């Protein structure tokens, strides 16, 4: 019962996040975290931690987002959940990039890429490729373009229209950067 209730709260929180209803999303994620207390709920709770950190990042509180993600990454490593590790690493890489910590961003993103390529997890690969492109395109536009294009192509292949749009937006940002 707790897992089902938490899943519904998480879904509602994700929708609230899409609508920029940050306070509502925070309340929903907090409640979902509170009811997932047992070890059998570890993976589900960590997935909610990712959403919580996304909320904090959208609020611009990057340090708080990292404080959520780092222990979650340690926990995902301790239980050996590779795909969850990749998700957490992708988000940590994006946040490190926003904080101008290029070395850390690249380390996290490359580790995430290795995991998702090895697992052939196409939805996760779409996200990580786009994050690598977002990170690298200012210093190496050609490499950024390749990451974006691979991300877009994969999103199309698996029918992820929102992720395709996100990739196209990143590619448009690259073109704007090159025109400056």
Query: What level of helicity do the residues show?
Result: over 70%
Q: Provide mean pLDDT, rounded.
A: 94
Q: What is the radius of gyration? A: 16 Å
Query: What is the distance, rounded to the nearest whole angstrom, between the alpha carbons of the first and last residues?
Result: 54 Å
Structural class: mainly alpha
Q: Which overall shape is indicated by the principal axes computed on the Cα atoms?
A: globular
Largest sheet: none
Provide the β-strand percentage band.
under 5%
Count of runs of 4 or more consecutive helical residues: 9
Number of distinct beta strands: 0
Along the chain, the helix and strand elements come as: HHHHHHHHH
User: Could you name the ranges where pLDDT drops below 50 across 5 or more consecutive residues?
Assistant: none
Can you tell me about this structure?
There is one protein chain. The chain is 85% helix and 0% strand. The chain contains nine helices and no strands. It has helices at residues 2-18, 22-35, 42-58, 62-79, 82-98, 102-119, 122-136, 141-158, 161-179. It is globular, with a radius of gyration of 16 Å. The model has no long low-confidence stretch (mean pLDDT 94).
């Amino acid at each position: 019962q707790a897992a089902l209730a938490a899943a519904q709260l998480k879904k509602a929180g994700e929708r609230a996040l899409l609508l920029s209803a940050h306070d509502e999303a925070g309340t929903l994620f907090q409640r979902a975290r509170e009811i997932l207390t047992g070890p059998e709920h570890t993976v589900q709770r960590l997935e909610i931690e990712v959403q919580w950190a996304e909320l904090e990042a959208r609020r611009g509180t990057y340090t708080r987002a990292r404080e959520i993600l780092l222990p979650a990454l340690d926990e995902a490593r301790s239980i050996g959940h590779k795909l969850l590790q990749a998700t957490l690493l992708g988000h940590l890489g994006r946040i490190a990039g926003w904080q101008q910590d290029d070395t850390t961003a690249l380390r996290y993103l490359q580790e995430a890429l290795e995991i998702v390529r090895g697992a052939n997890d196409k939805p996760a690969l779409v996200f990580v490729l786009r994050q690598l492109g977002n990170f690298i395109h200012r210093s190496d536009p050609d490499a950024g373009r390749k990451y974006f294009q691979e991300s877009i192509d994969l999103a199309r292949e698996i029918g992820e229209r929102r992720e395709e749009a996100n990739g196209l937006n990143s590619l448009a940002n690259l073109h704007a950067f090159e025109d400056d």
